[in-house]
Amino acid sequence: MSQRRSRMGLRIAAGVVRGLLILGLGFVFPTSTCADTGITLLGWDQVASHIPTGGPSRDLFELAARVRWPQGLSGPHGLQIVLPSGQVQVQNFTVKPGQTPRSIPFYLPGAAVRNLRPSQLAVRVTVTGPGGAPVLSNTLVARIENFPHPSPAPTRFDEQHRYGWGSSRKNEGGAARLLDRAGPLGLRFAWIPANGAESGFYLATTELSNAQAARLLKGYNPRNGRSDEFLLEAAQQPAIGLTPNQTREMLSQLSKLDRSGIAYRLPSTEEWLRAARAGRDTKFWWGDAPSQPTAVNWLGPEPPLAEDATASTQPATSEPRYAANPWGLFHMFGNVAEWCADGAERFERLGGHFRTDPEEAAEPIRVEDANSTGLDPYVGLRPAFGLDAESGARLIQKALANDQPLARLQVRFTPDEARATLTGSLPDAGLKLVADQKIAPIWFVSVLENQVEVPKIAPGHLARLGAIKGSVRTVTPMGHWYYEVPLEVRWGNPLPVQGSDWWVNIFLPGGGHQSHRLISVEPDRTGIIKVMVEHASIPNVQGIVGVGARVGLSLGGQASTPSDANLVSNVVPIQWRSK
């Protein structure tokens, strides 16, 4: 009799399994046998779609897999899903004759993938025979990146990435470097490398224009001191008729205009020639012969403008286009002559201008009177400034000086790369971002490398709690008195699947415990969580509230003790002064 009952029980169990298979929810053991059918799962189409089906405990996720399906293969098949728990589901999948599917949907319960640490999430799928065997395809794995999950912070907050901005470009062979951003009045500058005992410096890539000069010198008029009929007054034509004293006044005003703290000056004769020749030993950057058809606006065989005039300081958009030299500097020779200064009272005109004989253009012309333009009024200004590692770091440090935590950081500046490097430590990652933002307006910094250290999220944790941020309020939801404590939080990346159950746990003095779900439902970009503490349960000692209380975050359920396995953050003390 007992044997008959046993056989009957087996038949009933088999019938239940068959019924579940018909519903597409059967549980079977996976098999390692794989028939050579040509079915290949190629990858996931997109992030899994959430399908509500009547409540959080009954919802589904749909994963769509791209598939290479052999022609002519039809009939019933199974879709085997191995959930993170190890549980196996098989869903029915039928291919009608003549069909060749390109995508296959796999459905799995939302509860099967929520409340898991991202490293624990792995869903494995295969195509099988109708009952779960044999295996007919390769195995495709879905991980956290294939499911919707909160992204509370940009990539810059990821522990695996450094903060900062810009791209490093190492200068090779003593070449110049163009700065990525414009300075005051839209002027662009290039780093001119050192040469032996001569230091490197920065030089504008173009002459100062009429429009820019008018911003810097009261009463500037390009017709002053001229009786010619040349057309030289357009806004983008180079400024002319400038005396050494006027250039000094303009450079002083330019320094005041630049909030970064740079002090502008005239280049020296040696600096100007080194930059104009792009570091070469020849008379001009293209060689010793004065003729260069695409680079120079002066008298000679070069292509003239439509009229006898200066060319725009900016790179031309139509013919003739005057090329920059190899260091990115325009009109170093020709267009207008440019002032240089060797010492306080030694001034020279260099480079020639649009009316200069090319044979005479390479020689400096000394001018003794600082209130004179010299030979003619066709002389202008190309600003320069010196900024070495020490002075550059000092200017960058000023941008951080008004913020006490940031003022303690160390700053290095590398002039030839226009790179700022921050080192030191800060109590919170958010302050690293503040440092980035404060340095961002400093236009002469092309690359910021932020190597500042901050407390890291511990292995296995998903968040790091910090200090109280802002004012603690007393609130009365539903007639109950609570302290609302805003607490800093730094979220990890990635985070668990959307809809996971986050809990805020308050561990009270003496072993008491309170908890509530995260008020914002999901981790958000505010960097703050609100901790709700029952007013009557937390001590107030000599005006200090919360003495001995601690807070930690848990996933998937409450954490009753500070050592609970559900905790996914550090546990921090909270206390504040009552008003």
CA gyration radius, whole angstroms: 37 Å
Low-confidence stretches: 1-33, 154-161
Strand coverage percent = 25-35%
CATH third-tier fold name of the largest domain: paralog of FGE (formylglycine-generating enzyme)
Under the CATH scheme, the architecture of the largest domain is: Alpha-Beta Complex
Q: Major beta sheet, specifics?
A: 5 strands, mixed
Number of domains: 4
The count of helical stretches stands at 7
The overall pLDDT, averaged over residues, is 86
CATH homologous superfamily identity of the largest domain: paralog of FGE (formylglycine-generating enzyme)
Share of helix, binned: 10-25%
What does the overall shape look like?
elongated
Q: What is the structural class?
A: alpha+beta
Descriptive terms for the model:
579 residues; elongated; alpha+beta; five-stranded mixed β-sheet; paralog of FGE (formylglycine-generating enzyme); Immunoglobulin-like
Task: Describe the model.
A hairpin with an 8-residue loop joins strand 2 and strand 3. The radius of gyration is 37 Å and the shape is elongated. The chain has seven helices and 32 strands. The chain is an alpha+beta fold and about 575 residues long. Strands 1, 2, 3, 6 and 8 form a five-stranded mixed beta sheet that branches. Strands 5-4-7-9 form a four-stranded antiparallel beta sheet, with no helix packed on it. It folds into four domains: about 130 residues, Immunoglobulin-like (Sandwich), CATH 2.60.40; about 90 residues, no CATH class; about 190 residues, paralog of FGE (formylglycine-generating enzyme), CATH 3.90.1580; about 120 residues, Immunoglobulin-like, CATH 2.60.40.
